[in-house]
Design brief:
Layout lengths: L7 H12 L4 H12 L7 E5 L6 H14 L4 E5 L7 H8 L9 E5 L8 H8 L8 E6 L5 H5 L1 H6 E5 L5 H10 L4 H11 L3 H11 L46 H12 L5 H12 L5 H7 L5 H9 L4 E4 L2 E4 L1 H14 L1 H21 L5 H10 L7 H4 L7 E5 L5 H12 L1 H13 L4 E6 L5 E10 L4 H6 L1 H13 L7 E9 L9 H16 L3 E8 L2 H10 L3 E7 L5 E8 L5 H8 L22 H13 L4 H6 L6 H4 L9 H15 L7 H12 L5 H7 L4 H24 L10
Parallel strand pairs: 1-4, 1-5, 2-3, 3-4, 11-12
Antiparallel strand pairs: 6-7, 8-9, 9-10, 10-11, 12-14, 13-14
Helix pairs in contact: 2-3, 8-9, 9-10, 10-11, 11-15, 12-14, 12-15, 13-14, 13-16, 15-16, 16-17, 17-23, 19-20, 26-32, 29-32, 30-32
């Protein structure tokens, strides 16, 4: 192939082939399989440590497959929804051709799908399909235990380059002969280490950080190494080469040479966003960098030699991401916090507006950001894909009965039986991806006002409803959500990948539900989950001893008191540091006496349109304000507006008080110039209007005083 002929794609292909070194045995095995040679495998399982060059080898496999006229389907395990449905969505095209080549990179990110691929997906592909899986882990013993697979599978461990190959790589990278020995002593034969180190050691354009590979090709592959491939595959590489463990300072210097001189502040911010987010899109950069330069920054970012892209967006090599992110967090904590917040708000909007089929994918991208903060232990999963979410199917009822009887006993089984009959759509099943068998379930109830038989059948619901009536009754059209059962017998209410899937579903419904008034989550181990619940705006509400010896705690959130706009700021994407501890009771302001409280409520109603005045008023220190989860002083005015609105609206629940609601809403919320005008608008005699206004204010004071003193001893008069 001539270097100056054909399309840009052909020139890039030529540069990759010219720069590729080593891997002769792996290429020979793949070529035999591609040609259908006798005894050649149908599946190659390439595995090795991070940065050893798996993605680069797959890129070469793709080039050779296309040269042979074979259609190529490429899947990146890092970017797919790790479920059978998610995998099929990315790889489904492979079944449409009789001789396709399926290349699965970063398989360690969806390793739990291995059994399902082996037993269900791969056997259904056309006979001439060639499959290559590449990941950090080798195949499970189940492949070898099956005689058919033992003959059709070739396991290809990928190791460091041989010394001669490593030296050839440095030569192609433009490293001077005098410097090669030093680089080899530093990096050994580890391809990524060689690529990064040669970026510093090489003179001229190769060292300039422009990303030019041999022959001036931007981002040209280094053949057998990952660093120069525009997509780095493998993250950190501890153990990949025991002789090389760069310090953060050295790594920062190497990365600065690989990325090159960052042209400006917007480019640096784009790089930092890509290091922080799971994937980066042009839309995300418009939201963070600005609408004028989002497209330009995206184009610059995807051209970096340490960046790769897929359908979901651009991402950096894990090693690069870690270094860039850690550098910003250390160098500019305030800027890091602001970038984190802006990324989270964009992803939050994506999660709110995504089509139903894409909702959990969007929530997963959003929850990825929580690994950076104090809630990280609830969201960092070492392995995904073993299980996936599904709806309740007709054959699942017995499995649900078995799991609840095994974990909670006959009393809970009776409650489950009731809800299976009454609200089967509330059940979400979690299945083993390899077998499809149910291993867990969640009962996620959505209810308006519960029926008497529902309250009688489920004591936990009865407690949740009593809490609702006592502290903030539902208004017309509102509903509550109750996570009644989260049952995974092998890890009962423990932090686990299955509970993480349940969290994603719960969070999606919080974010996407309209007219949500209350949500409740149950746990028999509240101490384990309290930090996360408080972070998510849910506080302990009730505790119910159960015949099986557990005491079930309900965590509750009133979404009218904590409106979504405030909740988003507090929880999405989540703080990066531990929240400050709440003031002790000794340090808290003295509570208002009832007469002072009532006077403050009446004054606040008059100032309802002025949140700045509310924030400075007497109610600013009320428990109903400062006791809210994640309380922040800057939101005091808005929180008081919500509290007052909810209390006035609560009067509509009783038809006898509907007239009081109309008077209060007209007087305080509709911006009438005077009480006389309000009475005329309501067609009421002024004396009747004044009487209704006084009675309505009294009732609002009662409602808010009940909230203010709920669970708190009322101070004695004069105290």
């Amino acid at each position: 192939m001539s270097s100056d002929a054909g399309s840009l794609a052909e020139r890039l292909r030529w540069a990759r082939e010219r720069a590729f070194v080593g891997r002769r045995r792996e290429l020979a095995l793949f070529r035999d399989a591609l040609a259908g040679a006798a005894g050649a495998p149908a599946v190659l399982h390439v595995h090795g440590p991070g940065g050893v060059g798996k993605s680069t080898l797959l890129r070469r496999f793709a080039d050779e497959s296309r040269d042979a006229g074979r259609p190529v389907v490429e899947v990146n395990g890092r970017l797919i929804d790790p479920s059978p449905a998610g995998f099929r969505a990315e790889a489904g095209a492979v079944a449409a051709a009789s001789d396709a080549v399926l290349l699965i990179d970063a398989f360690e990110h969806c390793q739990g799908l291995e059994g399902w691929l082996r037993d269900h997906f791969l056997p259904g592909l056309p006979g001439r399909t060639l499959v290559v899986l590449a990941g950090r882990e080798g195949p499970s013993p189940a492949w070898r235990a099956d005689l058919a697979w033992s003959e059709a599978l070739a396991v290809v461990p990928l190791a460091d380059l041989e010394p001669a190959e490593a030296e050839r790589l440095l030569e192609l990278r433009g490293v001077a002969p005098a410097a090669r020995e030093r680089v080899l002593g530093f990096a050994g034969g580890h391809p990524l280490a060689l690529s990064l180190a040669s970026g510093v050691a090489a003179p001229g354009p190769a060292a300039s950080g422009s990303g030019a590979g041999p022959g001036g090709n931007p981002g040209a592959d280094d053949g057998g190494n990952k660093g120069a491939d525009p997509g780095a595959d493998d993250g950190g590489y501890e153990g990949g080469n025991e002789g090389w463990a760069p310090t953060p300072d050295v790594l920062t210097a190497l990365l600065s040479r690989m990325v090159g001189e960052v042209p400006g502040a917007d480019h640096r911010l784009a790089l930092e966003v890509a290091a922080h987010a799971m994937t980066t899109t042009e839309g995300l950069l418009r939201a963070v960098v600005g609408p004028q330069r989002g497209a330009e920054m995206f184009t610059w970012l995807r051209r970096l030699p340490v960046a790769d892209w897929a359908r979901q967006g651009v991402f950096l090599h894990d090693l690069v991401s870690d270094a860039v992110d850690a550098d910003l967090r250390w160098r500019d904590p305030e800027g890091y916090e602001e970038m984190h917040r802006r990324v989270g708000h964009h992803l939050l909007e994506q999660a709110r507006t995504a089509a139903p089929a894409e909702a959990l994918v969007a929530i997963r991208e959003l929850s990825y950001l929580k690994r950076y903060g104090p809630m990280g232990r609830y969201f960092r999963m070492s392995r995904e894909g073993d299980h996936h979410e599904d709806v309740l199917r007709p054959g699942d009822h017995d499995a649900v009965r078995r799991m609840i009887a095994e974990t909670e006993g006959p009393e809970s089984a009776a409650v489950v039986e009731f809800w299976l009959e009454r609200q089967p759509e509330a059940f979400w099943m979690y299945r083993d991806s390899a077998t499809g068998e149910p291993v867990a379930f969640m009962t996620w109830l959505r209810l308006g006002e519960p029926q008497p038989d529902e309250l009688a059948a489920d004591p936990v619901l009865a407690q949740a409803w009593q809490h609702t009536l006592r502290t903030g009754p539902l208004r017309p059209g509102e509903h509550l959500l109750l996570a009644r059962f989260l049952i995974h017998p092998p890890a009962y209410y423990e932090i686990s990948p299955v509970l993480h899937l349940m969290q994603l579903r719960i969070c999606a419904d919080w974010i996407r539900s309209g007219a949500l008034a209350w949500s409740f989550i149950i746990s028999p181990v509240p101490d384990l989950w309290e930090a996360l619940m408080e972070h998510l705006g849910h506080e302990r509400a009730t505790a119910l001893p159960w015949p099986n010896g557990h005491t079930y705690t309900l965590f509750a959130c009133d979404w009218r008191v904590t409106p979504l706009s405030i909740w988003f700021d507090r929880t999405q994407p989540g703080a990066l540091t531990e929240p400050p501890s709440r003031p002790s009771a000794d340090a808290a302001p003295a509570p208002l006496a009832r007469a002072d409280f009532d006077a403050a409520v009446r004054a606040a109603l008059r100032d309802w349109h002025r949140p700045d005045v509310l924030a400075a008023g007497a109610l600013r220190t009320a428990r109903m304000v400062t006791g809210q989860p994640g309380y922040a002083a800057e939101h005091t005015g808005e929180m008081l507006r919500e509290l007052l609105s909810d209390a006035v609206d609560a009067l509509r629940a009783d038809p006898r008080d509907a007239k009081l609601h109309r008077v209060l809403a007209t007087a305080y919320f509709h911006r009438v110039p005077s009480h006389m005008v309000a009475a005329e608008r309501l067609s009421l005699p002024y004396s009747t209007y004044r009487r209704h206004l006084r009675r309505g204010c009294d009732k609002v004071c009662d409602i808010l005083w009940q909230r203010e003193t709920a669970g708190v001893p009322i101070p004695a008069p004069g105290a």
